[in-house]
Amino acid sequence: MDNPYPVPGATGRFEEVIRRSRFVSCAGRADSRESALRFVQSVRNRVPGATHYCWAFNAGPPGSTARIGASDAGEPRGTAGAPILTAVLHSGVGEVVVVCARYYGGVKLGTGGLARAYARVAKGALAACPTERKVNRVAVLVTVPYEASGRINPVLRKLDAQILARDFGTDVRYRIRVPVVNRSRLFAAVAGATGGRGRVEDSRE
Question: Which of the four pLDDT bands, split at 50, 70 and 90, describes residue 52?
Fold first, then answer.
C-alpha cells in the first residue's frame, strides 16, 4: 500500500477486571514479527507475574493478512490470539501489536467468555493507542539549472518532499525523499517549473 496510513505513535494501555481476572492490554508499533516479539517481551517485563501473555500482530497496512501472527499463550485454543487478531485487523491501524496479560482471579470464564474478554481488552488498548501517519517514500534525484532553483523549492514543499542534500555543480542537484503517491506528480511539476530542462531520476541512496 503506497497511500499513507495510521500506525501507533506510542504505547496504548488498557486495564479491566472481568469476573475477578485482571486484564492488562498494551498496543504498540510492530513492522515485523521480530519487532512484535520484542514488544511482547517488553510487556512481560513491564507487567510481570501474569498468568498468560496472549498477543497478536499485523506488521503490514491496516487489515492486511500478509504478515500476521497470534498466540493463545496457554489459554484454550482460539480463545485469545484469534479474538485479539480480529480486533487488530479491524482497528484501521497498521503495523500494530497487542499484548493482553491476564491475572487469573479464580473464576473460569469459559471459552466464549474468554474470547469476549480478550476481544474487549484488545479493543481497549487499540482505542487508547495514539497514532501517527506513515508515509512510504522513495529516494529521488532532481537536477535543475541554477536560474530555476528558486522555483523548485515551492514545488518540493507542495509535494511533501524531504530534502536530504543540495549539491551545487554545473546545475543544482537535490537529493530528496518524496511520498510514493507523489512520485509521478514530481516529474510533471519539475518539468513545468523548469521549462522542461529539469531532470528527475530515481536514486539508489
Answer: very high
Closest CA to 12 of 120, 93, 121, 125: 125
- Joined together, the cell numbers standing for residue 191 give 518539468
| Identity of the residue numbered 146 | Y
What are the tens digits of pLDDT across the range 55-66? 999 999 999 999
Q: Which of 80, 128, 46, 67 is nearest to 38 (CA)?
A: 46
Average pLDDT score over residue span 50-59:
97
> Which residues, other chains included, contact 40 with Cβ-Cβ below 8 Å and sequence gap of 6+?
53, 55, 97, 99
Which of helix, strand or coil describes residue 35?
Answer: helix
25 in Cβ contact with 14 (< 8 Å): yes
Return d(Cα 145, Cα 137) in angstroms, integer. 25
